[in-house]
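G., the chain you wanted modeled:
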Amino acid sequence: MSEQSPNGVINLLQEFSIPLLFGVAAAMFWANLDYESYEHVIHWAPFGDLHVLGHHVTHHWIVNDVFMVLFFGIAAKEITESCLPGGSLNPIRKSINPLMATAGGVLGPIMVFFVGLSLIYGAPGDDVTTLHRGWGIPTATDIALAWLVARAVFGKGHPAIDFLLLLAVADDAVGLVIIAVFYGDPLLPAQPQFLALIAVGMGVCFAMRKMNVRSWVPYICVGGPLAWLGLSMAHLHPALALVFIVPILPGPHRDTGLFKDEDEIDKMGEELAADLHMGHSPLHEFEHQLKLFVDIGLFFFAFTNAGVQLASIGPMTWLILASLVIGKTVGVTLMGLLAIKMGFPLPNRMTVTELVLAGFVAALGLTVALFVAGAAFTDPTLLGQAKMGALFSGFVGFAAIAIGRLFGVGRSLPKAAKTTS
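Predicted structure as tokens:
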């Protein structure tokens, strides 16, 4: 029996989001075993009383306000490449159906959230102002888990996978806007004049691009901190800093597909590329060199944010979960069908049944939903309940796989269709 190589083990950990899932499990176990010590660990201050722009530098702050900059930077890279020739957003016509489905996947959960809120908390005299802030939690989809579940549900190479990935990436692009616009600190009013620092960072990066700087490091290490400072001083969430910088990095001429770690240089061959004095683009190298670090780092994100006591289950838990499951499934399906009626069909070989199931898989909110929950609520009770709803959405994956097996979804493609590249 052959042993698996270290690279094979690492690829397996990344492909199946093992660090993220293990982080969730470890956080839940520890928080329910000894919540006080868990809180002590995640709020540990490795640099003593050090503060940055009024924020105490704790483990929690480092993970959510610094490490997540890279996470959203990788997401921005995927969105950027999707706009290139050959990408899911280029030309725009072929992406109309999944983009309309994305709109349904955002608006559907919001509508379900507010309807549910009025039913649960709508008694006369109830103050639901604080509760309203939870509407953004069920709008996003966990890209990595959606990709993993989609492959298990539809089978490798099925067009529904790319459809769902585009939907998830666009979902998270909308999520980034929602976080930036609606989830600043309610105790600190926005100071938009500091956003000029973002423009400065972008300007510096444009200048480097004009000078043909071929390493991603100067772009990220100069433009990134300027954008981060601008967002922080404007009292907006700084985790979005690289969203403004990554699209400026010189990229490949064509998109090679979502989450495919190759570009035209790989397809050409390193030897031929070297003879032609060609190399990987800074945009490609940014993801290639940082993705392992980010994937492993998601353990710490999950561990820091998913430690919720089971006693935290309450009305907000079920409201978030229902908004994800009902809102995503119905919203994606209805808007996808509307797009068909308007003359923008589903991808070849993708059926309406698979559209419905793709909407259901999109209810996997987990990572981004946990992140938005932390920005939406400061009240420990509401925060705990909302996080439990986000965590419970992970069970959608198991349900989707079971439904797919039951109805034979994705398994009935003609042989020719399966082998077509």
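Residues 273-277, 412-421 have pLDDT under 50 and may be disordered.

Shout if anything looks off.
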